[in-house]
From TrEMBL:
<keyword id="KW-0560">Oxidoreductase</keyword>
<keyword id="KW-0285">Flavoprotein</keyword>
<dbReference type="InterPro" id="IPR016169">
    <property type="entry name" value="FAD-bd_PCMH_sub2"/>
</dbReference>
<dbReference type="Pfam" id="PF02913">
    <property type="entry name" value="FAD-oxidase_C"/>
</dbReference>
<dbReference type="InterPro" id="IPR004113">
    <property type="entry name" value="FAD-bd_oxidored_4_C"/>
</dbReference>
<dbReference type="InterPro" id="IPR051914">
    <property type="entry name" value="FAD-linked_OxidoTrans_Type4"/>
</dbReference>
<dbReference type="InterPro" id="IPR016166">
    <property type="entry name" value="FAD-bd_PCMH"/>
</dbReference>
<dbReference type="GO" id="GO:0071949">
    <property type="term" value="F:FAD binding"/>
</dbReference>
<dbReference type="InterPro" id="IPR016164">
    <property type="entry name" value="FAD-linked_Oxase-like_C"/>
</dbReference>
<dbReference type="InterPro" id="IPR016171">
    <property type="entry name" value="Vanillyl_alc_oxidase_C-sub2"/>
</dbReference>
<feature type="domain" description="FAD-binding PCMH-type">
    <location>
        <begin position="41"/>
        <end position="221"/>
    </location>
</feature>
<protein>
    <submittedName>
        <fullName>Putative glycolate oxidase</fullName>
    </submittedName>
</protein>
<dbReference type="Pfam" id="PF01565">
    <property type="entry name" value="FAD_binding_4"/>
</dbReference>
<dbReference type="InterPro" id="IPR006094">
    <property type="entry name" value="Oxid_FAD_bind_N"/>
</dbReference>
<dbReference type="InterPro" id="IPR016167">
    <property type="entry name" value="FAD-bd_PCMH_sub1"/>
</dbReference>
<dbReference type="InterPro" id="IPR036318">
    <property type="entry name" value="FAD-bd_PCMH-like_sf"/>
</dbReference>
<dbReference type="GO" id="GO:0016491">
    <property type="term" value="F:oxidoreductase activity"/>
</dbReference>
Length: 463
């Protein structure tokens, strides 16, 4: 597809739509929009536009579609795969940051309608104040926004019990790539009336539409919560809990795995002694209960189960302490060594142990060192590949490429996918093309073409 450049006439037309104050062409203002939180190369959009309403945003999209200029939707830019970053073709970046109003909270029917730019933690807090829970919980919740969560189908620690962002959304308002305003999904508990288009837009990384409003499902806030820290002598024993716990009738809210390599790095970073033997592993188990009695019962069952699987210790953990250790992973591994690449593999939970073994073998064979933590309950593992042991940049690139290719092959072979929650963006396109069912890929491309004939919406992402 041939695209046109952003001309002074286009800038003037954008100013007409959203007002001069909200169209930024100055380089210093565009720089923060030139990258996300991933390891990809920065690239500036030609102009950043900040609409305040769906109508303004739709007018911007119609303009971009008429003049055939790439349009890059952006939430708060915490993505990790370059999805909210322009590519070398530049274009118009549309930020939803001014669309940050909570429109309705209905405590009785338990839903909330918000604009796309509302920060996720604000939604969680507004629900909490009313005794309700918004269950979406990406670790970046303090700084990402709900539109970005919808576009990436963000997961997080609680996905094992409550599902990903897609499961928290009843309905969305979307601006299509040709600038129409569509209302997809309804606040219903069942519906068999055509294709569930909202479910396709959610997770489409800004390639099929720009989400402007979302109606979110809320649930009662669980009255009691407990955090157990089970210490195992070896990763395999810890990971056997992933299938054993649900089989024992317990659905944890969170089930997080850390192996000794990560625990040691976190220990150094936090300067707090961790109770893990060398070569061992942690499983953090968070349980919710309707009351103290049922919660105690579940804690006893989980404790006994962990010990029967070989746990050397099971602590009733201090929530702040144990989650501080888990959440310190990113900073701790970056402090240990600069991170060259991040991985986000997902396999059926019962295959997690096999995957971990394979990844270790592939790492050793390709000369790649990584640190990994896992949302174990949903089979999702995050790796930080360390910039260590490479002779030079070419060596680093070759080894990481070999590692990623073999790792993705192993993941695919196990019935998994190359991304559990971070998405494909720009960084994972080649691997996505290689390790996706070819017919599924063909259908996805056909869908994109039907929705966005001029391919103006987030081109160069996914495909
Ligand atoms: C420290 C850290 C922890 C993280 N933890 C998690 C985690 O636990 N789980 C998880 O899933 N992710 C996690 N992430 C990744 C990231 O925070 C999520 O992907 C988040 O959903 C992105 O939201 P955002 O508002 O920053 O979106 P952006 O980064 O701005 O955009 C992400 C993608 O969505 C598109 N997009 C943004 N807004 C819209 C919209 N309104 N309509 C259509 N498309 C849009 C963009 O074009 C881009 O493709 C983490 C990131 C960091 C840095």
């Amino acid at each position: 597809m041939e695209y046109n450049q952003v001309t002074p006439e286009v800038v003037a037309a954008l100013q007409q739509i959203v007002g001069e104050k909200y169209v930024w062409t100055e380089r210093d203002k565009r720089i923060p929009y030139g990258q996300d939180e991933g390891t990809g190369q920065p690239c500036l959009p030609d102009v950043v536009v900040l609409p305040a309403t769906t109508e303004e945003l739709a007018a911007v999209v119609r303009l971009a579609n008429d003049v055939v200029i790439p349009l890059i939707p952006r939430g708060t830019g915490t993505g990790l795969e370059g999805g909210a970053v322009a590519d070398s073709r530049g274009g118009i970046m549309v930020s939803t940051e001014r669309m940050d109003r909570i429109l309705e909270i209905n405590e009785d029917a338990m839903y909330m309608t918000v604009e796309a730019g509302v920060i996720t933690a604000v939604i969680q807090e507004e629900a909490r104040k009313r005794g309700l829970l918004y269950a979406g919980d990406p670790c970046s919740g303090d700084c990402c926004c709900i539109g970005g969560n919808g576009a990436t189908n963000a997961g997080g620690n609680r996905a094992v019990k409550y599902g990903t962002t897609r499961d928290q959304i009843y309905a969305i308002e979307v601006v299509t790539p040709t600038g129409k305003i569509a209302h997809l999904g309804k606040r219903l508990h069942k519906m068999t009336a055509g294709y569930p288009l909202e479910k396709i837009v959610i997770g489409s990384e800004g390639t099929l539409g720009i989400i402007t409003k979302l109606t979110l499902r809320l649930v009662p806030l669980p009255p009691c919560t407990a955090n157990l820290l089970a210490v195992f002598p070896a990763p395999a024993k810890a990971l056997s809990l992933v299938t054993a716990l649900p089989k024992a009738g317990i659905t944890p809210t969170c089930l997080e795995f850390m192996d000794y390599d990560v625990i040691a790095v976190v220990q150094d970073w936090l300067k707090e002694k961790q109770p893990c033997p060398e070569g061992g592993a942690y499983m953090i188990i968070q349980l919710d209960g309707k009351n103290e009695d049922t919660l105690d019962e579940d804690c006893v069952t989980a404790d006994e189960l962990c010990r029967s699987l070989g746990a050397v210790e099971v602590f009733m953990a201090d929530a702040d302490k144990v989650w501080k250790a888990r959440k310190a992973f990113t900073e701790a591994s970056a402090a240990e060594c600069p991170v060259a690449a991040m991985e986000d593999f997902v396999v059926p939970p019962d295959k997690l142990e096999d995957l971990l073994q394979s990844l270790k073998a592939i790492g050793a064979q390709t000369g790649v060192v990584f640190r990994g933590v896992s949302h174990a309950g949903d089979g999702n593992i995050h790796l930080d590949v360390l910039r260590r042991g490479f002779a030079d940049e070419a060596d680093e690139k070759a080894k990481i490429t070999a590692f990623e290719d073999q790792a993705c092959a192993a993941v695919y072979e196990m019935g998994g996918a190359i991304s559990g929650e971070h998405g494909i963006g720009q960084s994972r396109k080649a691997l996505f093309a290689k390790y996706t069912d070819p017919v599924a890929l063909e259908l996805m491309k056909a869908l994109k073409k039907a929705w966005d004939p001029k391919c103006i919406l987030n081109p160069g992402k996914l495909f």
